[in-house]
Each structure stands twice: as C-alpha cells, then as structure tokens.
Design a protein that fits this description.
- The protein is an alpha+beta fold.
- It has two domains: 23-72; 83-190, 2-Layer Sandwich (TATA-Binding Protein).
- Helix content is 37%, strand content 36%.
- Strands 1-2-3-4-5-9-8-7-6 form a nine-stranded antiparallel β-sheet.
- Strand 1 and strand 2 form a beta hairpin.
- It is globular, with a radius of gyration of 34 Å.
Length: 191
C-alpha cells in the first residue's frame, strides 16, 4: 500500500509543462520574418533613396542643359549626351575613339573624358612634374608620327600641339595647386 500511495503522490506532483512546439516554431518564424523584412526595407530604402536622388539630379541637369544626362556608379560618374556627342565626368576608361598612337601617361589617373562628333578629350592627373610630363609628350608624339606644331612652357604650364592625318592633338600640362599634382588635358580633333 505504501507503494500505491507513493505512486499516487508522484502522479499528483505537478510536472513542469514543456512549451508547445507549434507555438515556439511560430514565434521563431515570426521573428525571422520580421528581421528579414526590416533588413530588406533598410537595404531597399537605401537603394531607393540613392536611385531617386540620382534621377532627381539627372532631371535638374537635363532641364538646365537641355541634354540627356545619366548619373551612375553611385554618383561617381556623370554622362551628358547632346546631338554633338557625349561627355563623361568621373573616373573613366579611355574612350574607344581616342587615338591609339597617343599614349595615356603611365600611372596617371583618368578624371574625365569627352567624345563629340569632331573629337575626343581626356583629363588625367599624376604626381610627376610638369617638366617630366612635357618631355614625355614631346617625345611620344614625335615617335608616333605626329608633327609638332608648337611646344611652349610658361611658369607651371606647358603645351604641346601636333598634327597628323588631318587631326590636331593638343596636350596641356599644368599644376593643380590644391593638391600639388600635375593635370594633363589631351584633346584630339579634326583640323
């Protein structure tokens, strides 16, 4: 009888109840879904904000310039297209229309490019001196068959112009006093 009482008292003891598995799974699923939605909305709102900012800037420039404008790469690159051609400002690659017989200064960073129906322009920046870049382009143009028409220096500026096959190349080299770098502007167009 003592055994029966012991069994009855054991069965009368309150056993801890385990949580219902279905309700915990639902709670976990709800938390995961909320976290995912918040994450997507955060990334989505950043992307949407960036997209709308770029589009607003494009429209403002288009209205002012009367030309098609595309801002891309997170605002690092602006392209303006007109009937006369396309200009791109930002870190770019050398345009396909740029003559292969004019060197892009080694180690220089391209800061802007422009292509029109009559010519191409690239802008570069380097830490080399104006004199070094000037000597390089005088030599490079001559060695590639460009006939030098002028070479001038004045203070911290130098210019080389040359002609070849109905085109004129102009290389303008100067010092950017803001950061003590050398800027190089190369334009090539029809004579």
């Amino acid at each position: 009888m003592a055994e029966q009482e012991s069994k009855q008292s054991d069965s009368n003891k309150t056993q801890p109840t385990s949580p219902k598995k279905g309700s915990n799974n639902k709670l976990i699923i709800i938390i995961v879904v909320v976290v995912v939605i918040v994450g997507v909305l955060g990334v989505g709102s950043f992307a949407a904000s960036r997209f709308f900012t770029e589009k607003t800037a494009e429209k403002a420039i288009e209205q002012a310039a009367g030309s098609k404008v595309d801002i891309s790469d997170g605002g690092d690159k602006v392209t303006i297209e007109t009937d006369e051609g396309k200009a791109t400002i930002g870190k770019n690659e050398v345009p396909d229309s740029f003559p292969s017989d004019i060197a892009v200064y080694s180690g220089a960073e391209i800061t802007a490019t422009s292509e029109t129906a009559t010519g191409t322009m690239i802008s570069l920046i380097t830490s080399d001196s104006v004199a070094k870049v000037f000597d390089f382009y005088k030599s490079d143009l001559a060695s590639n068959g460009w006939a030098q028409t002028a070479a001038t220096t004045y203070a911290e500026t130098a210019t080389v112009t040359a002609e070849k096959g109905g085109q004129m190349a102009s290389v303008i080299i100067g010092t950017d006093t803001a950061d003590n770098k050398t800027t190089i502007f190369i334009s090539v167009g029809d004579l």
